Known about the structure:
Chain C is α/β, with parallel strands linked by helices and 336 residues long. In chain C, 36% of the residues lie in helices and 21% in strands.
Amino acid sequence: MKNYFQIPGEISESTGLPIWKKVDGVDLAYVGYGLVIVTLVVVSYILGSFHLLTRDPQDIDLGLMMAPPGTAGHLFGTDFMGRDMLSRLIVGIQAYFLPGLLAIFIALFFGTILGVLAGYRGGKFDTGITYFTNLVDSFPRLVLILLVIAAFKPDIYYIMLVVGLTNVPVVTSLIKGKIQFLKQKNFIEADVALGVPTRTIILKHILWHNCRSLLIIQATLGMAEAILMETSLSYLGFGVQEPTPSWGNMVQSGANYFMQGKFWPSTAPALAILFTILGFHLLGDGLNNILEDKRNT
Amino acid sequence: MTAAPTLKIEDLRTYFYSRSKQAFIRSVDGVSLEIAQGETLGVVGESGSGKSITALSVLGLISAGPGVISGKIGFKSDRIQKNLLQDLDDFVKLTTKDGKIMAVSKDVVGWERNTDRVMNKLRGKEIAMIFQNPKSSLNPFTPVGKQITEAIKLHTSIKTEQQAKERALTWLDRVKIDSPRLRFDNYPYGLSGGMCQRAMIAMALACEPSLLIADELTTGLDATIQSKIVDLLVELKSQLGITTMLISHDISIISRLSDSVAVMYGGTVFEYGPTRDLLSTGFASKHPYTSGLLASIPSEQSIREKGYLQAIEGDVLDTINIPEGCRFYGRCNQVTEKIREKCARHEPDLREIGSGHKVRCWLYFD
Amino acid sequence: MAKTILEVMDLKKHFTHRKGLFSSFKEAQQSIPAVDGVSFYIKENETLGVVGESGCGKTTIGRTILRLEKPTSGKIIFDGKDITSVRTNELRLLRGQMQMIFQDLDAALNPKMRIRDILSEAITVHHRISDAEVGRRISDLLEQVNLKKSKLSNFPHELSGGEKRRVGLARVLSVGARFIVADEPTSALDVSIQAQVVNLLRDLQKRLGLSYLFISHDLRVVELISHKVAVMYLGKIVEMGLSDRIANKASHPYTHILWSSLLEKQSKETAQKAKSVQAGRWGVFDFERPTAGCRFVPRCPVYESKGKPTLCTDPATEPQLKDIGGVHQVACHFPL
Amino acid sequence: MKPSAIRPIALVLSRELIITVLLLLGVSFVVFIILFASPGDPFSMLLEGQLSTAEVRTGVREAMGMPRSWTMQYLSWLAGMLTGNFGTSIRTGLPVLPEVLHVGLNTLILTTGSLIITLLIAVPIALYSAVRGTDKISWPLTMFSYVISALPIFWLGYIVIYFFTHKLGLFPLAFGFSSGGQKYRWLYQFLPIFVLGVGNGTISEVIRFLRQEMGRVMAEDYIRTARAKGASVWKHSFKEGLLIPVTEIVASKIPFILGGAVIVEQVFNWPGMGRMAWQAAQDRDYPVIMGIAILAAVFVRMGSLFQSVVYVIVNPRASKE
Lengths: 297, 366, 336, 321
């Protein structure tokens, strides 16, 4: 029989432990990887927008087409027109970064307002907002975007407006759920009974204290969504057009060479998409596990 | 009494590992109990005293997470005799550093399969259990009657649905559910809490188990319903003479129903003896915790005088950080100077100080 | 003679239960009378206990008095002032004087705030005072509720049940409330802790001159802590009087059954005494359809033993609270 | 099932049906708003397209006049749609509805098939990790699900095409729906389904949801009761732990899969709604996209309706509320 006995009085208080010791190692790894990706994206965006790249992404070098990765001067090789892949990948971030932030902002802003209305006021508001969210959820996002493109023009900001709006229901239902949870625990009621002004209850107690982490998580997941949409659309030929690079149109333009067995021009941006979306997903889920689920139990 | 007891628990320890604190929560920490055939043992204690965990350990229902169980649980009925704790250590791996446990890993599935093998033909058939929260303890997606016939078909010689239904109806009638035929097809949400608990009792007893474990079976029900359920149990007990382990935090229920009683605190048994002695106010040589507990309940006298209650100061013991010495030392108001040193340094054992009366307190040891 | 701090007159609170999406068109709303015409008063420094089974509307009374629910009809007079329909601003001021302790231990405790912040926020809700003053008040409060100072930097989930209850109490006291609705303040606690809290509540009443509306299903605790007790059944008060009269000389059959269920559990000997009146049927109650006439008829042993008199089931003669002497009121045609 | 049990279910279903109709009305209104607000007045053209050429020729439009107010425009358009008149495609000049319905069937096959693939992958992983927690097998599987959920689906399509046409040489170079060697025809049609099922980006979410739900149900009191009475835990947890969550997640993921179908149909030349929508967006052929958007919304709503049906049938309480 094993001895499970432990010396009494030697147990550390949970509050004394640093946070990384309290949480699951797996979650920590997720978040760590996610933060690396976020940093890479942000740094690349800054590099690209201030033209700090050593090689111009538009520089055509017909003498050095389809160079494999590792070629001198071209770490990631070159594409079918001899343009530097690394530079194009870095500049490709421009295509989604700011529009993505716009989409996130729209989703969080309207989602929060509707969520608070539905959860805090309830009743008719709730019914109306539920109808609205169900309505938005009825459209496949990509089809709705195509409709908007056809009706207006293939502008990335229009697209991201739709992405943001179609993400509103997710945020709404999360905020609403959170408020209902707090209500169920009589927590909001206790505040009302104490005489705390409604504004303080909503802004400080509900949003700041209890929904903060949830919104951060939704922001990261929203970025993943924005990248997915932008790359899909530029792959389909909408949004950013050649020669301006975007990860989606890079995959598309490399497609013919892919079938000839020259994988790299198409694979490099595809991997960039893969690792970036993965990073945002893992960051979101890791944060979710750390901030939302475990501390409440 | 020479016959072997129906249930004999020896030095049961059920620990859960808390990763954030890198230590075991010692929910049950050295419990020894016996229930003779036909006897009702009441286990009383506050939350965190380990009484429910003890019961769940008996049925092998502790599996989730990194929990470990050691000790011996002997079960004996007319049909079967068995140690219910077998080879559980094989599924747990400890990583220690400087004598301190750093990590615990457990083969949960292997553990569960092992307990399922050991408990096969015991759960439901030999040992039945009734839980608190009757409404959530019944499957909300299945009619109540079906849940009873399922147990009957699993554990008795009755295998046809029709016969099982007849038997279930008899039992629903016996637990005094009105219009059992109607209730048979009801889903749990359509029944009140008291009725659900009656259905649970019917389900547990329909297979005629040798041992019944009732865990807080009246908690959460209204006072009037509680007393009806207790009435029912009294009646069934006199009819069936079933061996029962009755767990409750409500002393009045324990005192009404049980023959002997075990008072638990902080994962151990503090006192163990006949109900008549232990829970009557006149009986003097009690554990300070037991007398404190009795005093904290509003009594006729305290109500009449509108006086204060005699509360036990301090907080219920946190079983992750069990102190040296007596577990109750910090809250005890009967420590004398003579024994203070012993109380603070050494944990007393459970010793017999009268006929069938055991107590874990230095006050009564020389 | 003590002043009346709270008076409730014919208070009603009906919940409407909407069935489906289009109920508002179809007039298919169902009204559930949670509180159905309740009147009582509480004097300063006094405790009124309210007992009854779950679903009898006792919690709703407390919530309606505090205006967490809008009353359907009736009057609530607090400190000589009608507060039945005061506006939100005034309501906020009122809440500096009347407060509620919730059954849920976690109710008042924001899980993401430290105890110190919870308390200091509560203090500053109604009073604009300096930080130093806040600190002083916090230590006063801690002393009043007997809580260790070291707990101030903890989060709520790190506290034990008793400590949470104390923090909840401190929060209620911090605004300077004189009248407190205590909704099952001890039911989530262990017996030994329960006694501490009961003692603390009585202590605070003595020292600060508080008045309580003490709602509980624990008859013993209510009997101990209250001066007067009101027994509720399906939204109505069926009996009200001094606590020892209610406990020992109950006139309403329901009160009698409640208290005898207590005895019956307790010991084998006394159980026999109570058996005489004990014969009620215990069906599921349906709150949406109270029986015409007396609500207690379906479970009433007296009704049964009197040979089911029509007086009890006549819709025109629902029994009202009648004074039977000695500040004792009962709503029954055949009081025991 | 007893007749007494059918009535409440029928009631709930009729309610769900009304909600579905209301939502579809809303869908049409949103589409109307988008088209109405867009520059170049495409909506008038759309209304015009609803008239048959014969009517145009005989000057019916001039006679009846174009509806003036926007409400009248919307209502006349809606009335047209309700009679099956979705207008005519700008590009081909053919009526929209039959075209869209024709390709819609193909898309239905594609999405239903890929949903089944998704579930076939996700359910075992979810159940395994719900039971075992994180271990040597479930962790890599979870990681794998994360990776394939982040995989750009078009690139996955390339890999699959390259592998089967170039490496194995099973199909001719021009990948298309109806062409291809007879021998491998089934595989030929299966590949897009497989790619969409694996690469639609929802697998990790589906797994997480199912695992969470199963885990939650496994911790329920009634599962403990089942264990205590020696009954099968799986039998008791199946309805709440698997059946309901599966229908729930399937219903909520249909829009995503329809979105993914646009790309997969593009990559594999699958003649479905998505490909048609893409073509129409290129040509700004909004009557067609409008038809597709509405049809897609009908698919989504049907999925939700199906979910409610299952939920009501399984959960006795649902029909009481």
